[in-house]
Every structure is written in structure tokens, then in C-alpha cells.
Amino acid sequence: MTTTSERVAGSRAQQASHHVSQSVFDGSRLRVVLLVDVHDGAHQEFLDAYEQLCNQVASVPGHVSDQLCQSIENPSQWLITSEWESAPPFLAWVNSEEHVRMVEPLHSCVRDTRSLRFHVVRETGGPAADADPAERRLQTAPRIGDGVIRHALTFTVKPGSEEIVAKILSDYASPEPQVDDTTRLCRTSLFMHGNRVVRAIEVRGDLLAALRHVARQPEVRAVEEAINPHLEQDRDLDDPESARVFFTRAALPAVHHVMAGRQDPQAERYALYYPARPDLGMKLAEVLSRRDEAAAEDPRSPVLRSTIFQRDDVVVRLIDVRDGLEAADPAQILGLTDSAQVAELTTLLDDAGTDTTASKDAGMARLLDIARMELVTDRRSPDA
């Protein structure tokens, strides 16, 4: 049977472009670490919930193994580690409705959780240690990042309320950017496509601390309360469980980030929305990531930076463009230089909307027009 990681990664080389600072598509193994703080007196309930979850996750494609560990210093602190064939099958599972249902029993017995995900770069000991890194599915070299963590949230609003929601989301005072001594909000970009809202944030430091900081700000809380009546998915921000489920489903993780060697502080930011066919969201994101890697190597490309976000069948590509979108060739913005690439992309889209009888230029322009999201607000903190 072909696994998720094999379908997505295939034979793609693990040595990625030096322009890529983040990617889930290199095929290397993944280690997931979950830090858990258990309520006093709830340890047996926690163990029972873990055993149930462990039995269920064992059958998930791409899962290799897991461990449950208890602190020798503080019995309330637990550590769950799991190993996966690669990142795509884990992300497909952790972002699914099945996962939301699986972990529900855990939340009544824990104070707090923190999830960390790592590609395996090196390992020691055992017969596998002498094998070639490619055969062990290890990341062959460390990635060099820019110190910025990228994350997004997405949700839909009731049809007909788009203008009201856009006004609410644009008319608020920005929160204090400095979270603590090590964490700072750098940029928030908010876009809409029909009734879908996408809020992308850039943080230097601790993402979880930044998200909690923003949620506590009165101006942000007022905005969230104001859009509540317009949301398609009901939520009660005064109910921790309701809020948790909403934001779990709204999470739109960054799966790929690429930056060209040339940069322009005046580059304009855009977002493109790619609704994928059922079960093809991860594959679509992987195809787009290849295009962005190629564009980063091309000095003629106006795309200077690209981040791809994906969850289920929702794929969003956030791009910084030199000289603006109107002055650019649509094919370069989309990263498609020939008809074969267009055909590959449109087979993955739920509604490409392109006329196969149209000229190449007209088809590209039409595809770009369909994908383009409307900018609501783009805020940068000083010294970001």
C-alpha cells in the first residue's frame, strides 16, 4: 500500500534549495513532542484517555510509534512523543475532524498542552545509525531561517455579511506588538475571498505566547465578539472548550516558506486562494512549493517571498511581489511557465474556472483573477 508520505514526497530529493527556510515536503521523518500539564487527581483519567487515543492513532497511515513519559521532578508534567514517516501524514491527521474527536477526552484532565514538531536531522545508536541519511529518511542539512514564525487562521462568515465583517476586521487599534522580552508581533495580514477570511501573522519569538497575548487585548476581544453573529461556525468565547474547538479548526499551518536572495522593502503583499479537490490539498500545496522554489532561483521572477498555508482542502499562498501585481506577468505570479504546469495545477483545483480553449495568457489571467484574495488590512509593527 502506498503511504501518504510516499504519495506526496515521492522520489523528491531531500536536499532542498537554500532559499527554502521551512518545508514539510522533503520526505524526512518527523518527531512530534506534546508537553502536557495534568490536573491534580486526574492522572488515571489522563492515562485512560491516552490509551484510547494510542489505540486509535496506531492505525493512522504514516504513524510509526509513540511514547508516554512522566516527569521525575513534577508528576503533573507529562511528555508524549510520536514518530511519523514524514510531516504530511501527521498534518493530514492532526488537522482532521477525526483528530478533534480523538483528543476531546484529554482536555477535561489537562491544564495546558504545547505541541512541537521537528524533522529528524541526525540520530545515534542502533543499526540504522550506519545507514545512508537518505535511506533513513533524515533531513540531510539544517535549514537556515530568519527567526520569524508564520501562522494563519481561516474561517467562513455567513454569505451576505462579507462587507460588514471586512469593516469590523479593518477598524480596530493594533495590539501592543511587544509580548515579552523575547517575543514580538511583526506583521498581521488579513484577506478575504468570498466569505472566507484568512488572517496571517508573523511572530519573532514564541508563537503560542503571541497568540495568547493577542487574545487578551481588549480591542481584539471586541472585534472577535463583533464578528461572532456573522460566523458560519458558532462559538462562545466565554466557554474555553467552544473557543478551543473553533481555533483548532481555524488553524491554517504554514507548510512551506521560500525567500529569494533579492529583496525589496517596497514589495507589495498579496494572497492567493486555491480550493483543492477533496483529499488533494496537501498535493496541491506540494506542487505550488516546487513552483516557488524555481521562482526563487529565477532573477526575473517578481515573487520575492512566498509562504504556503494548508489545511484539508484549503490552500493559501501569501506572496510579496516586486512592483505590484498589475505590472507582473500572471504566469510568473502563479509560478507556471508552460501549459503542462497549468494542466497539473488545474487538475488539483476544485474549480479552476479556466477555459481550456482560451489562449495561454488569457487562461493565466483568469486563473490569477479567481485565486486573488481581497486585502482587508496589512499591519506591520515598528522595527519588525
Can you lay out the helices and strands and say which pair or pack?
Blueprint: H1 4-9, E1 20-23, E2 30-38, H2 43-57, E3 63-70, E4 77-84, H3 87-94, H4 97-107, E5 110-119, E6 148-156, H5 162-170, E7 184-193, E8 196-204, H6 207-216, H7 218-227, H8 240-250, E9 251-259, E10 268-275, H9 281-297, E11 303-311, E12 314-321, H10 330-334, H11 339-348, H12 360-371, E13 374-380
Antiparallel strand pairs: 1-9, 2-4, 2-5, 3-4, 6-8, 6-9, 7-8, 7-13, 9-11, 10-12, 11-12
Helix pairs in contact: 2-4
Characterization of this structure:
This protein is of the alpha+beta class and 384 residues long. 32% of the residues lie in helices and 28% in strands. It contains twelve helices and 13 strands. The protein has helices spanning 4-9, 43-57, 87-94, 97-107, 162-170, 207-216, 218-227, 240-250, 281-297, 330-334, 339-348, 360-371; strands at 20-23, 30-38, 63-70, 77-84, 110-119, 148-156, 184-193, 196-204, 251-259, 268-275, 303-311, 314-321, 374-380. Strands 1, 6, 7, 8, 9, 10, 11, 12 and 13 form a nine-stranded antiparallel sheet that branches. A four-stranded antiparallel sheet has the order 3-4-2-5. β3 and β4 form a beta hairpin. α2 packs antiparallel against α4. The termini are far apart. Mean pLDDT is 86; it is low at 1-14.
